[in-house]
Each structure stands twice: as structure tokens, then as C-alpha cells.
Predict the 3D structure of the following.
Amino acid sequence: MPVLLCLLAQLPLLPAPQTDALTEELQAAGPDARVECLVQLEHLSSSHLTSGRRPLGERLELLRAHAARTQAPLMEWCAAQADAVVLHEAFWLGNVVHLEATPAALGRLARLPEVRRLSHNGTASALAAVRPAAGGSTSLPWNIERIDAGLCWDMGFDGSGATVAVTDTGIDPAHPAFAGNLSGPLSEYWYDAVAGQSQPYDDNGHGTHVAGSIVGGDGHGPGTDDIGVAPAARLIVVKILNAQGIGNFSQALNGLQWLAALRATVDFQVVSGSWGVANATDLTFWASFDNLVALDVLPVMAIGNSGPASGTTSTPGNFPLCLAVGASNENDRIAGFSSRGPAPSQSPWNNSGYWYRPDWNLIQPDLCAPGVSVRSATPGGGYGENSGTSMATPHVAGTAALLLHRNPALSPTELYGLLRDGVDEVPLGLPYPNSDYGWGRLNSFNSLLATPPPAEPWLSATLLVDDSAGGDGDGLLEAGESAGFLIRVENIGGVPALGPTLELSADADPYLTAAGGLYQLNDLAPGQSGDNNGALFPAEAHDLTPSGHAVSFTLTLNCGGGSAGFSGTRRVELLLGETPAPIVFYEEDFEYDSGDSFAAHWLVTGGWGEDAAVFNSPMHSAENGGQPSSSFERLVMLDTVDFLGYPDTTLEFWQRYNFDDSLTSTAQVQASTTGGGSWQTIQNPLSGQNPLTNFTRFTVPLADYESDQLLLRLRYKADPAYNNHARWWVDDIVISTPVDNEPPLFGAVAGPEGVRHRRGPFPITAEVSDAHDVVSVNLVLSVDRGAWQSQALTPVGADQFSGQFPAQDWGAHVRWYLEATDGWPTANSSQSPLGAPSLGLRRLRIEPSGVSRQ
């Protein structure tokens, strides 16, 4: 036996396996060409990371330390091959190195002992088929009703306190569907792995739609667009896909690692991914997802859109590490495009150590959810219907947030079990489980009912404003007011909370002065609440605070009890004052005073006219006459609308209809930006629901039709063979835009202050941001109380400006400040220091060395 070991030691190392796509790239490359490659090294398994109940921070440090140790020999080897190898980035999550190398160098690299696998830097893609459709609804959308999410809201569970991470094409942060869901500083909820932009955006629309199905709307609140399963949950958004809905493997690895690092400070337990790789056996993301599970995060992933053939799943959705989601329609029939299982019968899929449940046994998907004609948010403030397993996945992620509201202590394994066991076994899918539906169709309410309360004390909290003494008593902290913050804490756990404490600290903000602190509460039995009513935390809003300005807080809660007590940190956002009312450019409710008339404002063809019997708001609507027509009949606006300079403008109206289902029947909303000279179709307002028996809101963005002479027209045609099926009512038309009253926000400012013993010039830098871009940043100064002078700073990067403070004479006394202006049509401006020059200034004295003023 010793001889055999010696002989084995002399054998050359076998090269690490590589993907077929990388092999093809190497074969096509010239000898001096460099080929992109992802080098997989040995990764720490989730079982190793979670052994011994290691704290979360320790698990993160183990991942970093292991990657540093195992990557070091590779880094040294690459440095010695600098003429043939270019290093791009190294990932500690999953232990992957991204590099470029010549074919010969990669051949040598493949034989290094630490290398486990080589992969091409392929692409992942969004999994959706998009179909634009109509706007708002006064009732719950079919998909929300089908999974009984509204019943969860009835019980008081709406996702409060839960956070879901979304990896996709980004998000439209200004969309009204996300009011309150993107709270906290940008560093806690936004990362752009594609272009490195500091502000959230979505140049595709897929991510905005997906995010809307998780949190959009306000549940049982006054809003009508209740498109999200968990409307009170928070979002973290990571952009890994570009404007075409495609992202490189390296971009996705980058985004996933950013999420893993954020896990140390932000308590998210679900990551939603509506993207995939067509190769069902690609292992590029295996180690990263295994590590995420070890960090107590459940990945909820789309299974793919390659059905109906069997064995068409995509990665990473088909990993047993993920909860895989298929798509079903309004009739609970599995969608034809939804990928079918089983998962690949090979390692590591068939290693039961990676399974959440012993009965998984390669069955994919795990479950299905609504994914056909799902209405959700679109960039620009509108709404549309999309289809795909991409649309099904966020329903499951949102349901996980509802369960975490009930029990924030749930592990990934517990979440997986509750979601899978709560499904409805719809008759069309019998018998279960199977490779079409998995174990059944998602039912949020069933899963919530089965969710136990935490077996430990668990504290949740709400921040309230008491402005009865220093304000007008309306429960809002507004400009110039003082108030006290009341923190109401509830023990939602299953055992008493002993010695609970709450600690509040406010983020730095120029408009808020707040004294946080620590407060001791009495013991709280399960279900009992307490607060700091005897010692409110004082706060004051600056006189210049723009109404609706958002401020953020960190709330830390601790208590003893149970086996381990409770310790948790929550981010809280508060609006100072109310969000400003929108600017309305046009309104039409079809109600006319004496001397005015329908004909004075509308040009019609066909049977269009007023209807006094059917309306959204009393007492009239516009109605098309109900006559089928093989040519378009039109309702044309005569009053032009000027909203030039306001790209966030939206059109909204309320409608109901009853059209036939013939392919020749259609309705259109059209716009002319030339006063009627030419027309473009904005959108088809007919949704998948026909007839539409209740008035519902239609909303569409007008960013592409910005004009000072906009006209709109509605037109339809309906197959004459279908009598009495061509009715269309329209009411309460509004064209409006949200108001931006927020001036540019100053961050760090560096410039000369105090006494300087040289004359200058001096460098000056400033960080300034604004939702509508910063148009100008100026240095404003006065020398020896002379006239104010202004000079512009130059933009040098994202939100960064720099310039030179001019040289001064000896003895000069200079007062100065910075002023920034944004790109809103009625420009907002702000100063640093805030309110300068009347409320504060920066000062500089120029004196020779050794001279001091007495």
C-alpha cells in the first residue's frame, strides 16, 4: 500500500472540469487571445458554516477567511503569468475568481490543485414574456385573490418588519406602488452590479414589475392598486441584469456577494430571483446559493420558461438549495411555457444533504403560483400585465414575507416547508407531487395559518409622532414643529420578554434634530405591548423642511427570556409632513355648467356621447354608443395640454367595458404631440378581464409624449357580428405629475475654513445628489463684507463636484457657502450650511504664519 501511494503521488494532476461553452470559446480563440473565465475553488458548505450554531457574523468571517486562504496561491500564480492572465475580481461568496487568460495559460491553470472547476462567463436572463395592459382596479387582482393574500391582511399580517431582496433589472423608485417600501439609506437597499449607478433605476421594466408583485400597493389601505402580496415589507434591490434583461455571470456573482455582506447589518431572509441560465446543469451559482442558505436566506427562484417538455428546468432555480416556482393561470392550469422537471439526476442534485426535505427527490418545480397575465407596476408610474415564471416567483417571495411577519425567527428550511405544505392541490394537477405543478399551487393563507409564533420572545415596534405640544396635533412632524417620538413595542413571540429595552438613533439629516436614547420597558407577556409614553424622544423639524421629506432611524430592541432572549435592529422611515399634492395639467369629469357642453371639448365620430345612467363619479361619463363597427370610432380631445418639462407625467382615467372576444375587436389610447398632426398608440386599455363590470382605473406614463400641445383620443372598433358587445364607458380623466419639492441634498463638503496661513487658491469639493439631477453647484463668497460673488463648481463624477476657492489677500476675512440647484422645472435650491446666508455661513481668515488676531 505505501508503494501505491508513492506511485499515485507521481502522477500528473488531472485538469479541473470545464463547461462545454468554455471549451468552445477556447477552441475558437487564437493562441494570444484572452478568454474570460470563472475559476471555482473549494467552497465552504452550508453544513460546515452552520455547525455549532455559529453566529451570523462568524459565518461571514469564515467565508472571507477561507476565500483569502484558498485564493492566495492562485493570485500568486496569476501574478507570475501577468503576460497571459488578467485578474478582474475575486468573490469570497462561493469562492470564485473572475479572470481572462490565453488558452495555454488556462490549460496550465486547470491543473492547479486548488482549482475545482472552470466556467465561461455566460449570461443569465430574465424569465418573462411581456404583454402591456390596463391600469388600476378597485378590487383585488385575480392573482392576489387566488392565493388568499387578502385573508392574511384581514388577520393583520402584511409583511411588516420583513425584508425581501430582489435580484433583477432594477426598480423605478418613484413609482407610487412602492411608497414606503424603499426606506433607509441607499447603501441598505440598492446596488447596481451592471453600471455602478448610485441611484435606483430600471432601464428594462422587468424588475419593477417583479417588485410590484412582492410589495406593491397598500393592502387594505385607501389605494386601489393592490398588486403586491406583502405591501408593508421592505425591499432590497440589486440590479444584475441590463436594459435587455441579460447579465453576465460575473455581474450576478457580484450582486449576490453584495447581498451576503449586507446580511451582517440588514435582516433579510428571502432573496427573489426571476432569472435563470438555460443550461440545466450549470453549477456557476451553486456555491454562492449554498453560502446564502448558510446565512439564513431562502432563495426563491423561477424554474424557467422552456416548457412544456419534461426536463426543461433552468439553473439556479432547479438547485435543491432554492424553492423553485412554476407558473399557473387564472384557471389554475399550469402555463404551457412553465418549465417542467425533474431536476438533473446527477451530483450535486442527487446529494440528499442539500435537500430541504427527504421527499424532494428531484421533483421540480416545488410549487406553482400565478404567472399568466399578472398585473403589476411598470416604470414611469404605470401598470401592465406580464406573463412568465418571473411573475409567479414574487408571489412566493411576498408570501414568505407574510410568514416572517408572523414569525421572524423562521429558518430557510422552516420557510420552505410552510410554503410547500400550504399549497392548494388544484384538481387540474392531480395526482401530486408531479413535474408540472410540483406539490401544488401557492396559498398564502394556508401557509400563514400553519406558521407558529416564535418559541422565543420576539419584539416588533412602531414609531408614532406626538406633536400635541409643539405642533398642530395632527400626528405629523412638520416644518418648524417639535414633537416627541413614541415607540410602541409588542412581544409577538411565544414566551415572555424579560427586561425589554428600546434604543432609538436618527440618521444624520439636515432637516431633523432628534435626541435618541435608551428606554427600559416593563416585562411583556406574549401579545402584550409597552411604550415610552413617560419619556418621549424629543425631535424638531427645521423651518426649511420640504413637506414629505423622508428621515430614517435605527431602532434597536433587546430583551431576555426563553433560551436566548432577543436582540434585533430595525430600520424605520418617517415622512416629515405630507407628500405634496400632484400638479394637475388637465381634468375632465364630463360634468358641464350652463354655457358649457360636451361638444365644446370633444370631437366625436360614431356614437360617442354623454351617458347619465352609467358613471364613475356623478352624474355623467363618456360612452361610445354601443354599436359594433368595422372601422375606428373616435373620441378626440379638443383642449391641448402643456406639460413640457415634466417627464414623470401620467394619464389616468376610469373605465368599464364589454367587448366581444373577436380578434378584430380592439381599443386604443392615442396621443398627438403636434396638436393633432400625427397620432401614436400609447396602449391598449383592455385588460385580460372581459367584460369589466366595475369602473377601474387605467394609468399609463406619458414620458414618451412630453409636449406643450398634447392631444388624446380614444378609439375602438368591434366586430359587427357580435351585437351588444361593444360598450365602453370612460370617466374622470386626469393628466398630472408628482411634485418634486426636495432641493438638492448636500453630503460631505470640504473647503477652507478657520485660519489659513497661505493665500490659496484652495481646493473645494462637495457631494450633492437629487432625484432630478443637480444642474449647478456654486461657491458663493463675500470678501471683507463686500458684495457676494459666485463661481461654478465642476461635476467630476456621480454626485461629486469640485472647484477652486480663489486666492485671497493677506488679512482677508471671507464668508462663504455653497448653493445647488436641481433640474425640476420650478427649480429647487439648497445651501450648505442649510439656509445660508441668513441662517449660517462658513468663514475663512487669511493671515501670515505667526500672526494671530487678539
